[in-house]
Structure formats: structure tokens, C-alpha cells
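ugh ok so i messed up the first submission bc i forgot one of the chains. this is the corrected input, ALL of the components this time, i swear. 602 residues overall. if the numbers dont match what u have on ur side tell me asap before i send this to the collaborators (the ones from the other lab, u know who)
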Amino acid sequence: MHIIVPIKQVPQSSDVKMDPVTGTMIRSARSSVLNPLDLYALEAALHLKDEHGAQVTVVTMGPPSAVQILKEALSMGADRAVHLTDRLFGGGDTYATSYVLSRAIEKIGSFDLVITGERATDGDTAQVGPGIASWLDLALATYVSAIEEVADGHLIAERLIEEGYQRVRVSLPALLTVVKEIAIPRLPTLRGKKRAMGKEIETWDAEAIAADRTKIGLKGSPTRVVQIETPKVARSALIYHADGDEATVQACDHLLDFLQERNLLAEVHHG
Amino acid sequence: MAEVWTIAEASGGTLKEVSFELLARGRSLADELGVPLASVVLTDEIEEAELQRLASYGADIIYAERDPRLAPFTVASHAAFLTALVTRHAPQIILAAATTSGRTLLPYLAVKLGCGLTADCTALAIEEGTGNLLQIRPAIGGNIMATIKSPDHRPQMATIRPRSTPLPSPDHARRATIIPIAVTDDFHDPVQVLSLRPFGDQSSSIENAAIVVSGGKGLKKRDNFTLIEDLAAALGGAVGASRDAVDRGWASYPHQVGLSGKTISPELYVAVGISGAIQHLAGIKTAKTIVAINRDSEANILALADIAIIGDLFAIIPVLLRRLEERRTIE
Ligand SMILES: Cc1cc2nc3c(=O)[nH]c(=O)nc-3n(C[C@H](O)[C@H](O)[C@H](O)COP(=O)(O)OP(=O)(O)OC[C@H]3O[C@@H](n4cnc5c(N)ncnc54)[C@H](O)[C@@H]3O)c2cc1C
Ligand SMILES: Nc1ncnc2c1ncn2[C@@H]1O[C@H](COP(=O)(O)O)[C@@H](O)[C@H]1O
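and heres the new structure output, hopefully the right one now
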């Protein structure tokens, strides 16, 4: 079995704090990390590798610094890494990005599964996975929370949807987007890191994947970002201190009054 | 005149509420552009009277297809019908809900149609002069709002966050023309739905709940989490949790709110013993009213809260429950 995992480099959010006055984000460092939700995709692939034996290829489209996340993936256990980098790719929206990734996946070739993260934490669109499936006409299952069974030519998976867990039978080759529940990501090991150092990362540009120039980068993107605003959160909380019994009762009453005023106690079905 | 379309969602013969929210959005766009508003329904079985509810919320035209292969939702079959329908009628705008189905179908369809798509919009407008659709969405965990357009491609496509649109009162006298889609091509969907295991308890579906009461690490242990369940029940809401609470097994993953859980927009969000890490706040930025109960007067959650009680949750929640109960008995 051959599994391809597209992974993305995103700005780190873990040590980001909120500015209490403006309600906006303060980024302490402009460091970049592997999209945390892609760790689950990678782990799902590595788990299948452990169970059934599989070749795992990771691929990213991004600037030169993105080799970092490919190395991380190799040290976790991926077998092969492909870096798609070209100034022509810059500024691509999800249409252009999914096109470039689909061209690369086609070139990598002979795969059974593509597993992506549910969404990237920066763009936050969750569109690239389904987009790749559409370019390549792959069977598509999104929000996968478990892979139950992999057999010849198909797999059985569980999807987390609004109504509950849905079981699906998916013909291969397929693309899955996965949610956090699918796996607990492993940490890179020292041995893995050493092994990764010996591995070559392949670098491909637009020509290498024979990309249609009208479909890549900013030029190939149907959408345009025309404005970015940092909304000031106007909320400044009414604060009540619950020190002691009396103050607690008063604070609770203030809260209930507040909710009643906003009609938030109205619809309660009371048993 | 190129139409504005909304993609309705239905299950078990009943339209889902998001279908009407989309029409409320679509109606004002269609009015501004002076074009008809159509709703597309792809499902297995649905009565005519149920379909006409789309008219009462603003649809002028209803494109309906009833085919056993269309329910439950799978992407390839829905996309096959829609691609044919779009090619035939060339709408200028398509809106769908940012649900698990909408967020699967639209990106797949956008690639098939060679069009742009904006995810998870919270506001829409028509640009003066050009008539382009301005699509406004939160990004980077809700810390920025981006305005996006697709000037040179049609249809312009967007998914709309559920519960971000107030429902107008329906006009039951309105009627729409129902047009069968009748695309008869034979297709095979490589994904087959086998079964559904519904959530055990009603409180699981936090994305549709008007009220969500969430607990975090401040609850200290699993047994205490019943306080959250009790408060949720008393307020008529669903139970949510921070990642720390989920990781400790106090609540299951479908309850997790935030970056690696769910993004929700309830009328009321109550955060109990939750510090309000940036990753948690990412999931609740668009909640209408936020209440915090926390003993730390410096907690991050206060940056986003409308009202807060600072103190020990173990002292506060029982009193809150009692006072709520007393209020109700007096009424
Ligand atoms: C990539 C990534 C993704 C993440 N995704 C998510 C996500 O989706 N959702 C999420 O929630 N987190 C997420 N996190 C984790 C996040 O950073 C925080 O660790 C987490 O939200 C903290 O949970 P908490 O507020 O329950 O716990 P804490 O931060 O420990 O806060 C507990 C709070 O309870 C209060 N408290 C304690 N005792 C009492 C008491 N007796 N009475 C009143 N108040 C009390 C404390 O003052 C404190 O504010 C993510 C992190 C990363 C790095
Ligand atoms: N530039 C990229 N390179 C590789 N994979 C990507 C890239 N952008 C997105 N992806 C994949 O698509 C998923 C969804 O991303 P998004 O649609 O941007 O939210 C991510 O979790 C990745 O698996």
C-alpha cells in the first residue's frame, strides 16, 4: 500500500496570547510549525504502515523553509518527502493549491490513499482535501474519525458528522480528510531524526509537475482577498466577584438578570 | 438574468433549518441584484408541501431531485447532479451551508466548475458598481476578517456558517415553481453509507445548539463534570468542553470546542473553569453572548466575555442552579 500525505507549514499559535484591550492576537514569535491537524493525518498513515505495511510519502507546497516540516515527518516515520516550491506557486488559493498538489500526487504515482488534515489552522478553509479529490476523481470521505478495515480495493471508515458517527465503505484509491479523534500523534524519535538526516528531500517546481501556468499561483486563483481587517472585540465583560455566600448569590442573580434581559432564559424547556 | 442559488439540506423528508438561513441570505442578494432566488434540493423523498416551505422563506424557484441515491449525502452523486444543473442554468451565485456536507460538496464542485469558493462566511454583500459578491469570513482563528471576491469566475460560491443568519418570519402564502432536475446519467458513487450511530445523548450536537455550556480543567475531575451537565440541562443547552477536559476523558471529542475541535456560533456560550487559550477562543469568536465563570480575574477568556463571575465554580454553580430554579417556580 502507498499512502500520500499532503502537509502544510503554518504560523505557530500555541504561544499566542490575546491582547486584553483590543481583543486581538499577539504573536510572540513568528515561528512556523507543521499544521497541528496534519499530525493526525500523518499518524493515521503511519499507523496503517505499522499495521499493514505501507509506503508513506509526504508532500508540501511552500517556501524553502517548509523543508523543516518534511524533515519532521521523515523523522516520525515517513519514507519519502517531496517539496513543491516555485515562485510561480505563490499566492495560490485553495483551487490553485489543490491543483498543484494533485499534479504532484499524479507524478508521485501509484497510490492507494491520500490522507489530509481536516483543515489548516491559518487559512482554515478545509477545502484543499476535497479539491484534490475532485481534480483526481478520487473517492472522498471527509471528517474521518476512524479507519476500521482496509481490504483489497476498499476500506471501511467512520465519519464524524452532525448527527453522529457514520460508517462508510470507500473504494480505493481514495482521499480521506481526518479529524483529531483518529489517532494520537507519535513524537519524532532520536533514531528517526538520524534516519531522516540521511534522507534526500526531492524538490519539484512548476515544470517538474507539468503544471498548467493558468491554474497556479495568484494568477491561477479565482478568489482575491480584497481587504483584511483585525476586528476589535468590543466586549468588555461586566465583572461580578463571588467572594462569600452573599456576594455569590448576588453575582448569580446579576448573571440571571443579564441572561433574562437578552432573552436567553426564555426558551428553556424545564422538566 | 443569472439566478442566485442556495443548496438546501434535507434528511428524512424534512428540510434542515440551515436551508432557510441560506434563503434569508440569498433573498437580500437576489433583491439587490434584481434576479430570481432558487433553492436546490437533492434528496430521496420529500413532500411538495415541505418543499414549498422554501418558498415561504424566499425561494422563487425550487430545483428538486428525488432519487434514492441522493440520501444520505455522498459527494460524487450530489456533485454529478449539480454540475449538470449549473451548466444548464448558469447561476451567478451559489450558497451552501458550512456543514460537514456543504464543506465537502462545495470544494469538490468548485474544482469541477473551475470556480472560486470562500469557506465559512459570516457576512455577504454585493459590491457597488460591479455586482460582485463580497464574501466576508474570519480566518486565523477568528483573529482577522477577510473580504474575498471572485471577480472573473461564475458562479461565485461560498459556504455560510450555520446560525450566523437570523431567520425572518416565513410568509406562508408565497409559492415557488418546482422544477425537476431530471439528469438521468448513470453514475456510481465510490462511497457508500453503511450506517449511522447517533450520539448517545442529545447534548452532543454542539454545532446546532443555541446554548452551549462548556467545562474545562477547572472542573478538576470527571465526577465534577456533572455540574456542567446540570447547568446545560437547566439552561436548555448542549455540553461543550475544552481540549484539556476532553484529553482527560471528562467529555468525548465531539464536545470539544476550539481549534482542533468545533467552531460554534451559539446565542449563548458559558465557559466554566476554562482559561480561554487562543485555540479555545478560536472556536467561539462568533458566539453572541459569552459568560465566563473563573476564579482567575486575569483569565484570557475575560477578553471575550460579556459578563463574568470571578470566584470558585464549585461554590457558584450550585447557587446559580438554585437561583434559576427559584426564579422559575416563582414565575
Ligand atoms: C495545536 C493546538 C490545538 C488546540 N486545540 C484546542 C481546542 O480545540 N480546544 C481547546 O479548548 N484547547 C485547544 N488547545 C489547548 C489550549 O492551548 C489550552 O491548553 C486549553 O484550552 C486549556 O484548557 P482549559 O481552559 O480547560 O484549562 P486551563 O488552561 O488549565 O484553565 C483552567 C481554568 O480554570 C480555572 N479554574 C480552576 N479551578 C477553578 C475553580 N475552582 N473555580 C473557577 N475556576 C477555576 C483557572 O483559573 C483556569 O482559568 C490546543 C492547543 C494546541 C497547541
Ligand atoms: N500548501 C499545502 N501543501 C500541502 N498540503 C496542503 C497545503 N495546503 C493545504 N494542504 C492540505 O490540505 C488540508 C486542508 O487545508 P486547508 O484547505 O488550507 O484548510 C491540510 O490539512 C493539508 O493536509
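quick check: The domain at 4-180 of chain B is CATH 3.40.50.620 (Rossmann fold). that seems consistent at least. Chain B has a mean pLDDT of 93.
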